[in-house]
Amino acid sequence: MAFVGREEELAVFNAALYGGGCSVLYVHGPGGIGKSALLRRFAHEAAVAGRPVSMVDGRMLEPSPSPAASEAEAELVLRDADAVLLVDNFERIQGLEGWLRERFLPRVPMGALVVIAGRNPPDMRWQADPGWAGALEVLPLRDLRAGDAQALMDSSGVPAELREPLLAFAGGHPLALLLGAAVAVKDGGAGRRWMPNQDVVATLLDQLVGELPSAAHRHALEICAHAYMTTEDLLRAALPEDAGTLFRWLRRLPFVESSSLGLFPHDVVRELLEADLRWRDPEGYAVMHDRIHAHLAERVRTASDVDVLGAVAALLYLHRDNGAPADFHGRHDEGEFQEEVLREEDVGTLLRVATAAEGAASAGCAAFWAERQLEAFRLYRRTETGEPVAFSAWLRLAELDEEELTADPIVAMAWAHARATTPLRAGEHLAVSRLWALPPYRGNSPVMDLIQWRVIGNCLRAERMAWSYIEIRHPNQAWVEHLRRHYGMRDISEQPRLGDDAYTLFVHDWRAVPAQAWLERMNQLLVAGPAGGPSAATAKLAVLSQAEFAEAVRKALRQLSRLDALAASPLTRTRLIAERAGQNPATALGDLLRQAIDDLREDPRSVKFHRALSVTFLRSTPTQELAAERLGLPFTTYRRHLTAGIERVCADLWHRELYGTNAPAYRST
């Protein structure tokens, strides 16, 4: 097999070989990354230079490596100043690292060269010792670059139609490329649909990961593979026992890297672990996913404003195999662009960017809303240069005056659609997302990812939001289908215009499909796979006006003893019942009504209402006259108590419908 790439590593080795560099090279990287191939190339280069070469393989010194055995294997380099010693698989004899550094290497004559290669990086004590400052060169071995990966596939005879799926799976990981290529070439009909079979997955896992200490360690590694970044906090949410110990173990693995956000595995290891668990234990995979998903969804709801983007990105990463447009791979440290809250002094910049992006008419809308809702705007800059490249706005609207209706056709269209469909109820608002991005940054770009994450964060964190509208200028069909299928949004038929441009408005009714149901829908699509389709989505909720809601409560009270009648009530499709997950809707509605009646006893002023409702609806009294007689009340007094009690139940349940079932019960003053 041809040797490809590694020009930088070869340059460092040759500099040392010919006396212009260090005396010890320490090469480290995950399994299968090409350390042994590189050492064989080093041996070839040394032989060409006429220098004697000896090689020690850590695997050959097991099971009980000792300094004496290692020194015997490496004896040549101690007596020949021209010798080159290559030590492979050093992780197998890692316990000798201190002896090597303190006892063996100081005895190597000047001019000799030692190369150590293993999975683990060198102990920090190498760097802490000033004596090693100029003598040691550490070479972390990474994936092959794109051109080198292509060259490796050339040498393996991989046909053109197989290269894209093979690269998508293996990236630049040499062992994954070679093994995948061998299998893919044999499977002549695979084409663009090629995926590694379970034999490939198992072989690579053995080579890259190896045996794990316990089932808990394997589970921790599977969690690390599934999540975008793994922190001890996330590990504790998905695997409560020994989270601290397991996190410390994870961070020491050679194929797990650290960033400011947490730990993440090498991409190939991630893909292999994911594929293996989904095939081997689909139920366990779903349980793990749900735990991580719940933890990250809660993080989105509770994060500070500046942390929202990262929290949403981590949540959406769980859906990376479900057609998400953003490419998360390789973005382990955000930083190319940064988001800022718009300040007064930035408004001029907003107008310049908006004009360049979409013309004077759109810039006029930006100026109009910046004057009224400055806090709704975000500015996006290139971190390196500070160049402003995009702005977004999240406009919250509970009512519109005449000037606002005429100033912005996009907002006016959203407002008209909401009023014509299911208008806002008391205390509710709608939101309109606006965007101005310079032409090079539109489409599938990192800055658009940030804006998308901000929009999703706004939706998941909003209180009392009825509708959200997202405007997109000239959306392509792929985006339209993605927003419909994966995000449950639909485009309205009317297209508002600004200047010469037509815009498409995508809308979501958050009363019909609340945030939790929306997330569950995405989850179902992920676990079921694309074949699950939109049919796996949570059913839409009924959005009733206050009058319709009250009438439905009155009817349900009269039918409280009939489960079949309650099942037909529109109340079973309201937020009230949706938040009682796991219960039959009709049973849940009956329980809710009985509880609402019982709650009236808590207020001394409403005890008489409770008695009237209890006798009438809970004891199934045949007639109201008999109910009044059982209570010992004049019929007119009974009717007054009954009517007032029904109104109180309606008001209490309406309050919970608007604010959630955990909200304090409504009490009139």
From TrEMBL:
<dbReference type="InterPro" id="IPR041664">
    <property type="entry name" value="AAA_16"/>
</dbReference>
<protein>
    <submittedName>
        <fullName>ATP-binding protein</fullName>
    </submittedName>
</protein>
<feature type="domain" description="Orc1-like AAA ATPase">
    <location>
        <begin position="3"/>
        <end position="55"/>
    </location>
</feature>
<keyword id="KW-0067">ATP-binding</keyword>
<dbReference type="InterPro" id="IPR027417">
    <property type="entry name" value="P-loop_NTPase"/>
</dbReference>
<keyword id="KW-0547">Nucleotide-binding</keyword>
<dbReference type="Pfam" id="PF13191">
    <property type="entry name" value="AAA_16"/>
</dbReference>
<dbReference type="GO" id="GO:0005524">
    <property type="term" value="F:ATP binding"/>
</dbReference>
